[in-house]
Design a protein that fits this description.
mainly alpha, about 75% helix, MetI-like fold
């Protein structure tokens, strides 16, 4: 397992470099300009100086290698300096947002708690709901519970989150007035009253995202458990007199979790990347909202950095899923 992990980490290096190049070029060559909002009456020489101040007048490959150095070397040094109080970075140039003129990683650090609070809570609740529903639906195939679970999954996965979010806002926020329509990102939990306000404003966006995640994961869980329930080892365990609970939880569930782990692991990067649509609906000042705002104003460093972080997380969680395969199923060996 150790040698496999090392090989995968080494293989991830050229993969991430290729992904970084593709992302950088796609974003850089896309239509739009950081000066698109500047009046046309501004003299060309002034516009050129503004481009030079942002570093946008350099050749594309020069900017790519500088960005790559900043992402993998300079920004980690600043992170180490912030944690240990050292001065390894020595004032080196960071990845700067063209819109706000502050480091992009500083923006991410400010927005990440909002995203983790809402999207992370929703994903955890979605997983905790999906697993028991999927397991019991498979065990009670074609029962009323299975039929209801199938309807819930199809509806939850088919209906887009922007539609579900607006419906919940209309019913529970506008008509009933139970929950706020806008997420207050400045709210700090200091007492029971502020905690109540935080839970109330989290209720609708967490519900929207949790239902969507639970619908997908429960279907994968049901299909995987259903497939394993018909295997020979299950019939053998029952023939030996093993109880149903032990058969399902010890034997069936462990083997069934392998494809489910893949789905959960590949969905985890969205916890850090943010829910772009839902954050826009509920005005959550998270990573997704920052990405949309950067796209609107052609803030290329922010778009490139946030998108590449999402790609890095996908590669990392793929590796974690592969490692978990060997833990869940001893038959899987990476020789």
């Amino acid at each position: 397992m150790l040698s496999f992990t090392i090989r995968r980490l080494l293989a991830a290096i050229p993969t991430l470099l290729l992904i970084s190049l593709v992302i950088f070029l796609l974003v850089d060559l896309a239509p739009g300009s950081p000066l698109s909002d500047i009046p046309l009456t501004v003299p060309p020489e002034v516009r050129q100086k503004m481009l030079a101040a942002m570093g946008a007048d350099q050749p594309v490959m020069v900017r790519y290698f500088l960005w790559l150095k900043q992402f993998f070397w300079i920004e980690p040094l600043y992170g180490i300096d912030a944690l240990l109080g050292t001065d390894f970075a020595q004032g080196a140039q960071r990845i700067i947002s063209w819109q706000s003129r502050v480091p992009v990683f500083q923006i991410i650090g400010e927005r990440l708690p909002q995203t983790l609070t809402v999207v992370g809570t929703a994903y955890l609740i979605g997983v905790l709901i999906a697993l028991p529903i999927g397991i019991y639906s498979a065990y009670r195939q074609y029962s009323w519970f299975d039929q209801a679970g199938t309807f819930f999954a199809m509806a939850g996965f088919s209906v887009p989150t922007f539609f579900t979010g607006n419906i919940l806002i209309l019913i529970f926020a506008v008509n009933l007035g139970w929950f706020p329509t806008i997420y207050d990102t400045n709210l700090t939990v200091t007492d029971w009253e502020s905690l109540k306000q935080m839970l109330l404003q989290m209720a609708l966006p967490v519900t929207v995202l949790a239902l969507f995640n639970a619908a997908e994961i429960s279907r994968y869980t049901r299909s995987s458990v259903l497939e394993n329930l018909g295997q020979d080892y299950v019939r053998t365990a029952r023939a030996k007199g093993m109880g149903e609970g032990k058969v399902v939880m010890k034997h069936v569930l462990r083997n069934s979790l392998i494809p489910v782990v893949t789905v959960i692991a590949l969905g985890l990067p969205t916890v850090f990347g943010g829910a772009i649509v839902t954050e826009q609906i509920f005005k959550i000042n998270g990573i997704g909202a920052a990405l949309i705002g950067a796209i609107n104003v052609s803030d290329l460093p922010t778009v490139q950095t946030v998108t590449f972080i999402f790609a890095v997380l996908i590669v990392m969680f793929n590796l974690i899923a592969d490692i978990l395969y060997g833990i869940l199923d001893p038959r899987i060996r990476y020789d």
